[in-house]
Amino acid sequence: QNLPLDTDKAIVSRSTSSNGPWSQLLIQTNPVTIGPYSIRLIDSTINDPYPYYYKLEAYRGSTLLVTYGPVELAPQ
């Protein structure tokens, strides 16, 4: 939701630091940019003893349009 209308690729990445390095978890091509849309990731590392940071990058071709995050998910 709220992706730029000309987004043709969304990449979700994660890191153990808010500054990276980042590992790609998901590449979604031609994501829905109008109306509600959800991307769900199953992460079995939620009980690791350190937090992970996640970000989503929206692209048009090779041009980065916007970055959402990083968002920290701390261990439970």
Protein model, in words:
With 76 residues, the protein is mainly β. It contains no helices and four strands. The protein has strands spanning 9-15, 23-29, 52-60, 63-73. The mean pLDDT is 88.
Strand and helix layout:
Blueprint lengths: L8 E7 L7 E7 L22 E9 L2 E11 L3
Antiparallel strand pairs: 1-2, 1-3, 3-4
Estimate percent helicity: under 10%
Low confidence ranges: none
The total count of helices amounts to 0
Gyration radius over CA = 13 Å
Mean pLDDT across residues? 88
- The oligomerization state is single chain
State the distance separating the first and last CA atoms. 27 Å
Strand arrangement in the largest pleated sheet:
2-1-3-4
| H and E order | EEEE
Strand content: 35-45%
SS elements, strand count:
4
Shape: globular
Largest sheet: 4 strands, antiparallel
Class from helix and strand fractions: mainly beta
